[in-house]
Amino acid sequence: MEVSRKPTQERLVLDPSVVAVLPNVADVLEVAHDGESAWAKSLRIHVRHTDGREESYFMKISHGYHGHEALKGEFQATSAIYAITPDFCPKPIAWGSLQCENDAHFYVCKYYDFAEGVPEPTSFCEKLARLHSSHTSPEGKFGFHCTTYNGDLPQDNTWSDSWESYFDNGLRHVLRVREERTGPCPELDAMLPALFEKVIPRLLRPLESGGRSILPSLVHGDLWCGNAGIIDESTGEGIVYDPSSFWAHNEYELGNWRHKRNKFTHRYFQMYHTHIPKSEPEGDFDDRNALYGVRFNLHAATLFPSQESFLQMAIDEIHRLTDEYNAGFTRHDG
């Protein structure tokens, strides 16, 4: 179906596969470019429905095997979030492959015209806590039923009964992908045995020992300011989008807030913890947060290898944590 356009815009045709999944569309009024990243481009689709209403949809297009899997993961993750907190993410519509472009794939959801800034923390953290409080993971396991992507970085979401085991496995996967893309880093490699044998057991095992346990929470998985938007400028109410979800320890989400570049200040931590308290042992919270922050910095180092600061921040934090916990996990810690 050909679309109308402004004279200065490129003439765009909406693929039949996309037209077929849009609900009750009478006319496609406009298709416009809406942005682009290194691994995907996005479009805004404006339509008239059969009842006369006009509405806009957001469409992301990506290519190749990983493009297909990434958009599948985004649809599945957004659907999981929407099932729990429909007021906290765009309504997902469909994903699939384009008919008229070879090896090209799409994801469609409701479109929002976001206001500038970061959502107001009171309502935002209430919604996030509500998402995290729905402990409905299949069979109570950590993981996800498909691969989800952080940018173009696939995550290993293999199901696990233990959070420590899941986190260990997922972090090793990120490190393997980083090395495949950028090559070895001797300074980082030298610290990894202590990270996996001492730090991770010391900080994560106490969550699930000594009579303590944690229930899997659905996390957004990449919750930085660029994946949250204000939908009501007068109130600052916001939603999240572009998730790389899995069922996790709820505090994993907050690891991405540790880094000032992501603009979730201490106030967001405070508001979040009015709904969900810090896990026991509470005294380990800050260093657990630092450990989770290491993984997010390693994500960034993998996605943007030319920005050496991301890798250096991860190395510096691992060095601090390995010095602090060189004794590893002991019976006293459990």
UniProtKB/TrEMBL annotation:
Could you tell me the superkingdom of the organism this chain comes from?
Eukaryota
Transmembrane annotation, as ranges: none
E.C. no = 2.7.1.172
Q: Name one GO molecular function term.
A: protein-ribulosamine 3-kinase activity
Q: Name one Pfam family in it.
A: Fructosamin_kin
InterPro entries from the entry? Fructo-/Ketosamine-3-kinase (IPR016477), Kinase-like_dom_sf (IPR011009)
Signal peptide annotation: none
Q: Which reaction does it catalyse?
A: N(6)-D-ribulosyl-L-lysyl-[protein] + ATP = N(6)-(3-O-phospho-D-ribulosyl)-L-lysyl-[protein] + ADP + H(+)
PANTHER family associated with the record: FRUCTOSAMINE 3 KINASE-RELATED PROTEIN, PROTEIN-RIBULOSAMINE 3-KINASE
Record's protein name: protein-ribulosamine 3-kinase
